[in-house]
Amino acid sequence: MTGIEITDVTAVLALGSIALFVLGLKRLAKVRTSRSGNALMAAGMLLAVVITLIEVGRVDYRWIAGGLAVGTAIGIVIVVRARATKMPQIVARFNGFGGAASALVAMSLFWGAVVEPASAATTATVLGGTSAATMVLSVLIGSSTFSGSVLAELKLSGRIDGAPRIPVRAALMGLLLVGGAALGVVGAFAVTDTTLAAGLVVGLLVAAALAGIVLVLPIGGADMPVVISLLNSLSGLAAAATGFALANNLLIMAGTIVGAAGLILTQIMCKAMNRSLVNVMVGGYGGDGGGDADTEYTGVVSGDAEEAAMVLEAAESVVIVPGYGLAVARAQHAAHEVAKALAEQGTRVRFGIHPVAGRMPGHMNVVLAEAEVPYEQLAEMDEINPDLSQTDVVIVVGANDVVNPAASSDPTGPIGGMPIIEVERARRVFVIKRSLSPGYAGIKNELFERDNTVMLFGDAKEVLDSLATELSA
Amino acid sequence: MGPMLVSLYVFVLAGFLGFELIRKVPPTLHTPLMSGANAMSGITIAGALTLVVVAEPRVSVLIGVVALVLATINVVGGFLVTDRMLSTFGGRR
Asked: In this predicted model, what pLDDT tens digit does every residue of A263-276 receive, in sequence order?
């Protein structure tokens, strides 16, 4: 080696970028330091961009500058325009963009190195076997992540309803994934005609996109947290595969960390529902009950805000259990008002949060934080359950399956064995809900019939608003 | 050890690192963590940058530019939205 090469300098700088990612992620995982952790990760990303610009040297910068400017502007606009309740959709959308970007980087590599020179050799000969194989993998994972995430966003925003069953879905999935991969492998390893190779790789792109749709379409509602975290993991793995294709260790490192983190989160979500990933992915779960004899209720007591307020005024401890319905009704500010009014009269108020309440991991925490509910009032399921038998009043807001006692009373039922927030053990339970309609699992909730339960029918926000008014009157 | 083998080492060790970093995260932080990790997967921006270095609008360059735009949205939007969420979290009494 003669002296220090520019690539040695950038390699050392890349280590700095990785260090920032790792330290950032570590800090992001703790409440007190999370914001600075995110900033460190962003700094790591900026450093990665600078390193890459040094590496490419003096080139034509027009596309680079244009692409960075347009992407930055769109990214800022999307975030500025987003409401706090739309966070799950935004996360899903960015995730899809990440997957698509990885697939397209691999496509661009393939097109530039193989198709355009019309080299009359296979991709594997031109790029090397590992690079060709991981190019195929990157397109496969990235493209299915993109279509899956777009569909997830549409489902989260309610533009696509329900979770239709797809006939012979497993076989169809297998066909698309294996068939798509086969097209890619043949295109990259066996074909010297570059037009044909290009056609086969585009076929892979399309098959993978269809596989993503088949994967996500039959999954809905309460299973969305699992899907979102799985897609998150896949977008990382797509970046790692692109890293292998480009022989870029920075991409491999960062992408793999995201992939592993996403898998952990997916596992946590599955555990919180006592279901396996395969079971969730099979999809079409519950939801088709409707007029079932099982969902008829007897002896349901309903009340109004005035009565509820009287009970609350006498309560010493209150736990509010939010669910997806709270986010839909944008009732988080009203819930905070009720909590404030109760705290002012000296009542101990906490929010009991189920890990899969909402449509993405940690959804309720984000929504309540947006309403400036103090972090100290938010309690996890395991923390709140032992206290519920000494709790005077529980207010369930727009939650159903996560407070359904059938989880333990009917161990073989759809939610049998799922850990729930055991609100039925409190002295009095108010359930704010539009109607008696079943939750995502499509089963009856016997909580609504219990002697200590009073239903407060109505829109979550309106009911909470009138509760707050009554309490501060 | 060839460069591909080094990459394989990087891949496996990064996998372990990812598992260890996330294992004990409080549920409160699940969303910001996912959102931040998602922004990190935009690292593919570094790959996109190396593929759009000529002025000529060939197909490969155009595909690369689309990738660059999407990756940049992912990175900028991802870190911003995470910061926005975290600004309402913790650190405040």
From this structure: 998 988 888 887 78
Q: Does residue B2 form part of some domain?
A: no
Best residue in B9, B25, B40 to probe A by mutation, most A CBs within 10 Å?
A: B40
Kindly state the helix (H) or strand (E) to which residue A421 belongs, with its residue range: none
Query: Which residues from chain A sit within 8 angstroms of residue B67, using beta carbons?
Result: 100-102, 104-105, 107-108
Phi, psi (rounded to 5 degrees) for A285: -75, 130
Is B18 a domain residue? no
Chain A residues whose CB is inside 8 A of the B1 CB are none
Of the candidates A401, A451, A459, A465, the residue annotated as catalytic is A401
- Indicate the residue of A49, A82, A262 with minimum beta-carbon distance to B49: A49
Instruction: Give the domain ranges of chain A.
Output: 1-81, 86-282, 293-472
Q: Does B9 touch chain A (CB under 8 A)?
A: no
pLDDT in tens, B1-53: 788 889 999 999 999 999 888 888 888 888 889 999 999 999 999 999 999 98
Helix %, strand %, coil % for chain B, to 5? 75, 0, 25
Do A146 and A100 meet the contact criterion of CB atoms below 8 Å apart? yes
Judge whether B55 lies within some domain: yes
Fold of the domain spanning A293-472:
Rossmann fold (3.40.50)
CB pairs under 8 A between A and B: 376
Give the model's confidence band at A286: pLDDT under 50 very low, under 70 low, under 90 confident, else very high. very low
User: Can you read off the two tokens belonging to residue A47?
Assistant: 């450093």
d(CA A224, CA A154): 12
Give the separation between CA B65 and CA B6, rounded to whole angstroms. Answer: 29
Decide if A401 is catalytic: yes
Q: Does residue B8 sit within a domain?
A: no
Rg over CA atoms, chain B: 18
In this prediction the ipTM stands at 0.94
Give the closest residue to A104 by CA, choosing from A186, A202, A188: A202
Distance from CA of B18 to the nearest CA of A (A): 4
- Nearest residue, CB atoms, A363 vs list B31, B36, B80: B31
Question: CA separation (Å) from A358 to A88, A364, A433, B60?
Answer: 9, 6, 15, 41
Domain assignment of residue B43, given as a range: 27-87
Q: Count of H helices and E strands in chain B?
A: 4, 0
φ/ψ (deg, to 5) at A289:
-60, -75
Say what the pTM is: 0.87
Chain B residues 28-67 within an 8 A CB cutoff of chain A: 28-55, 58-61, 63-67
